[in-house]
Amino acid sequence: LTNTSISDAQEMETIWTILPAIILILIALPSLRILYLTDEINDPSFTIKSIGHQWYWTYEYTDYGGLIFNSYMLPPLFLEPGDLRLLDVDNRVVLPVEAPVRMMITSQDVLHSWTVPSLGLKTDAIPGRLNQTTFTATRPGVYYGQCSEICGANHSFMPIVLELIP
């Protein structure tokens, strides 16, 4: 003996399936807008273009007359006491603290990843595509990172060094 009015409640099942979905959409839409706006810097102090090559990075300070330099890993013969093996470079990216920075990241040859974990930055460098990340550092210091993609035989030898000065 079953009661058909209890087991056949399709209208109720439809309501308790669709109503939570509508509530989730109403919560998500404003959150997506806020998430998008927090990633944008309208007037950055610096715009730096970073181009990944095997096995080095090229940096271009686009706002300052196109200052361009390559950043290679320091070979073991050139390391001084206190330098980090496989993490130090010959030319560091120097930036001021408390300045909004826009990094434009791309690649010349294969997939790379411009990663500085201590600043919470990780952006893929893809050939033919220009990706963007923004940050504002709050503490001076030297921040180290590496390419975190498997982009070739020496992919782990593409260090990134940011020197943030007051």
What is the helix fraction of residues, given as a range?
Answer: 10-25%
The gross shape turns out to be elongated
Structural class designation: alpha+beta
By oligomeric state, this entry counts as single chain
Q: Using the CA coordinates, give the radius of gyration.
A: 24 Å
Largest sheet descriptor: 5 strands, mixed
Low-confidence stretches: none
Q: How confident is the prediction overall: mean pLDDT?
A: 89
- Give the terminus-to-terminus CA distance: 80 Å
How many H/I helices? 2
How many structural domains can be distinguished in the coordinates? 2
Secondary-structure map with pairings?
Elements: H1 4-7, H2 10-38, E1 46-53, E2 56-61, E3 67-71, E4 93-96, E5 101-107, E6 112-116, E7 121-125, E8 131-135, E9 141-147, E10 159-165
Parallel strand pairs: 1-5, 4-10
Antiparallel strand pairs: 1-2, 2-3, 5-8, 6-7, 6-9, 9-10
How does this structure look, described?
The protein has 166 residues and is of the alpha+beta class. The chain has 2 domains: 9-40; 46-164. The protein has helices at 4-7, 10-38; strands at residues 46-53, 56-61, 67-71, 93-96, 101-107, 112-116, 121-125, 131-135, 141-147, 159-165. The strands form 2 sheets. A 5-stranded mixed beta sheet has the order 3-2-1-5-8, with no helix packed on it. Strands 4-10-9-6-7 form a 5-stranded mixed beta sheet, with no helix packed on it. The longest helix has 29 residues, at 10-38. The mean pLDDT is 89. It is a multi-pass membrane protein.
Defining key terms:
166 residues, alpha+beta, 2 domains, 5-stranded mixed beta sheet, 2 helices, elongated, translocase, transmembrane, transmembrane helix, electron transport, Cyt_c_oxidase_su2_TM_dom
